[in-house]
Specification:
The protein has 255 residues and is of the alpha/beta class. It contains eleven helices and eleven strands. The protein has two domains: 31-110, no CATH class; 116-254, Rossmann fold. Helix 1 (2-13) runs antiparallel to helix 2 (19-29) and helix 6 (130-142) packs across helix 11.
């Protein structure tokens, strides 16, 4: 949005367009679709780089399908998360060409018009952490971000990290999901130079406290520079990775 706004203002400064045309553009960027039960921010991706994403939990399938229809007609892309198996099946009947992850409880229909350079590495400590990164994978895939998965390489068998060292090191941003004691992001942060986005997962026995032990461990990591998102927040981690990659692209263009 910033780039396009700058172009619009430059055109106005040089009298290529009128003030009314500038106002039409700005009004379009603020467009909201009112569904009574929801106000859809259809131009959010233009402003932030991340489109409005449907949080399907607690929503009725009727409301979800209404939102999908409006967003798809406006942008040609709809993403949803925290979607139950039953809801995913019903959405798939209406939009069979979409991509659905029953493991990640997420989906997207359509595709982003732009492609973002770089690659994200998705790393889990164990197999029980995979659903969180499958959610992240849906977000990355929908927005045309290349990513590679490195699953089940936690600290209980730390040698597995080194068997994939070169491939992990080839990634530009690393998203690391771990439950139990949440140690893996600290290990990854101590080995690799890339930005590390850590996701605590609600996996573990009693004192794992539903992911809080992993959260506290990641927040107090002695590997400096680790960014931590909320428990099970694959969406938030993917969005952060996308913004980092877009920033890298913008810096390269300026240089």
């Amino acid at each position: 949005m910033k780039k396009r706004l700058k172009e619009i203002l430059e055109d106005f400064k040089k009298s290529r367009i009128t003030l009314d045309e500038v106002l039409v553009y700005l009004k379009g960027e603020e467009k909201i679709i009112d569904l009574n039960f929801a106000s859809l921010d259809v131009n959010r991706q233009n402003r932030t780089g991340i489109p409005e994403i449907i949080f399907c939990e607690k929503k009725t399938i009727k409301n979800i399908l209404q939102i999908i229809s409006k967003l798809y007609n406006e942008n040609g892309l709809v993403i949803g998360t925290r979607c139950s198996e039953d809801k995913l099946k019903q959405i798939k009947k209406s939009y069979p060409s979409g991509k659905f992850s029953f493991e990640g409880k997420a989906f997207y229909i359509g595709k982003s018009k732009e492609k973002i350079g770089g690659k994200v590495g998705l790393i889990t400590a164990g197999t029980t952490d995979i659903p969180v990164l499958e959610e992240a994978s849906i977000i990355l895939d929908a927005l045309n971000v290349k990513h590679e998965k490195f699953y089940d390489i936690g600290v209980a068998g730390i040698h597995r990290i080194f068997s994939k060292f070169d491939k992990i090191n080839d990634c530009d941003v690393l998203i690391v999901a771990a439950g139990m004691e949440g140690a893996l992001p600290s290990v990854i942060g101590g080995i690799f130079s890339q930005p590390v986005i850590a996701i605590p997962v609600d996996v573990g026995y009693g004192t794992a406290l539903g992911g809080f032990t992993a959260l506290f461990a990641m927040l107090t990591s002695c590997s400096p520079g680790i960014t931590v998102v909320n428990i099970n927040n694959g969406l938030g981690a993917a969005a952060a990775a996308i913004k980092i990659l877009r920033l890298i692209e913008n810096i390269a263009k300026r240089d």
